[in-house]
Amino acid sequence: MASVVWYVCLAGLLVAVSGQIVDDCVLVGGEKKSDVDVAILAKLAPLKNKRFEAKVEEGSDTYVYTFVVCGRVITNNTSTNEGLLQTKVNSKDSSVIGRINETHVISGSDWILLSYRGGDKYDSHCGSEPRTAMIMISCTKNTLADGFMVIKEERSKSTECFYLFEMDSSVACPPEESHLSAGSILLIVFAVLVALYLIGGFVYQRFVVGAKGMEQFPNITFWQEFGNLVADGCDFVCRSRPRSADTAYRGVGDDQLAEEPEERDDHLLPM
Ligand SMILES: *[C@@H]1O[C@H](CO)[C@@H](O)[C@H](O)[C@H]1NC(C)=O
Ligand SMILES: *[C@@H]1O[C@H](CO)[C@@H](O)[C@H](O)[C@H]1NC(C)=O
Predict the structure, then answer these.
(1) Ligand 2 neighbourhood includes 37 CB (under 6 angstroms)
(2) Taking the mean position of all CA atoms in its chain, how far away is CA 235?
(3) Are 165 and 67 in contact (CB under 8 A)?
(4) pLDDT per residue over 178-227, tens digit each?
(5) Ligand 1, closest atom to CA 77?
(6) How does pLDDT run across 43-93, given as a tens digit for each residue?
(7) Which atom of ligand 2 lies closest to the CA of 101?
(8) Which option is the CATH number for 49-172: 3.30.70.100, 2.70.130.10, 3.20.20.80, 2.130.10.10?
(9) Residue 137 contacts by C-beta under 8 Å, 6 or more apart in sequence?
(10) Nearest to 45 by CA among 112, 102, 121
(11) What's the pTM?
């Protein structure tokens, strides 16, 4: 009963968390949310509102890129839905690279590509289109999120420019599947129980009871009895001819009677 309540609570929590992340990361063309996109956002839920920073030096300038997963970089009421912000160190300059209200997600077996579009417009490059941030999240086990860094800024094209980032996270990993079947787990448990019984029994017989030799095996008389019973059972089930009948009639059985005339004949012949 308690476990049922626990599962209901867990399921409710998961729905609540994924609902929240889906609402904050507003998908492009997301008036009608696809199940696939919602599932990817749900996978990202453990990273929600986590903040990552990467520094890049360009000539004498240093830029800091701040990335928040489905959350705003600026937390006061001047926020404009920026999910990835570029700030120039020692200056007031900053540019929004992408906004969470224009999110796009795609994923493969061991990666998730999160894009924020609708950033600040380029001044002259790329036909003055809005900036776009792409964050490639690759599967890395045993780390929730690490290694956020800038890969490159592609802005030499006339359109579809982007800033590319990468990050390692276990949320991008395929669901862990057990390599052991239920049958083999049962076998292993059984083998462990047998081993425990033998070792425990051995230790008990040797050091508590003080047994020697074969007597050290736990419940030796029972197992000997058991072995005999099994042998008898096998004898009864597997043998095609009854063995006891075989021995019982030998000596006084029909074959001796049948042999007798032959023997007599043998004796008679040479005479
Ligand atoms: C932000 O909030 C402060 C007070 O909390 C208010 O004075 C200010 O006008 C607000 N700014 C915007 C852009 O809403
Ligand atoms: C996203 O938010 C920004 C700033 O709040 C706004 O200017 C823009 O129109 C919004 N984009 C969409 C698609 O709603």
Answers:
(1) no
(2) 49
(3) yes
(4) 777 888 889 999 999 999 999 998 889 888 888 888 888 888 888 889 98
(5) 1
(6) 999 999 999 999 999 899 999 999 999 999 999 989 999 999 999 999 999
(7) 1
(8) 2.70.130.10
(9) 44, 111, 112, 113, 114, 166, 167, 168, 169, 171, 172
(10) 112
(11) 0.62
Residue nearest to atom 13 of ligand 1 (CA): 78
Find, among 119, 146, 149, 139, the residue nearest to 131 by Cα. 119
Could you state, in order of their start, the residue ranges of all structural domains in the chain? 49-172, 182-236
Task: Answer for the pair 25, 103: CB distance below 8 angstroms, yes or no.
Answer: yes
Top mutation candidate among 76, 77, 81 for ligand 1, by most atoms within 8 Å of CB:
77
- Asked if 93 and 106 count as a contact pair (C-beta separation under 8 A), the reply is no
- Ligand 1 near 78 CB (within 6 A): yes
How far is ligand 1, taken at its centre, from the CA of residue 122, in Å? 28
Closest residue CA from atom 5 of ligand 2 = 80
Residue 153 makes CB contacts below 8 A (sequence gap 6+) with 161, 162, 163, 164
Rounded to whole angstroms, how far apart are CA atoms 256 and 153? 106
Which amino acid is residue 16, in one-letter code?
A
Residue 39 near residue 60, CB atoms below 8 Å: no
Percent above pLDDT 70 for the chain: 80
- Residue 105 φ/ψ, nearest 5 degrees: -130, 140
- Three-state SS letters, 221-239: HHHHHHHHHHHHHHHHHHC
* Whether 133 contacts 162, CB under 8 Å: yes
Q: Residue 138's closest CA among 177, 164, 158?
A: 164
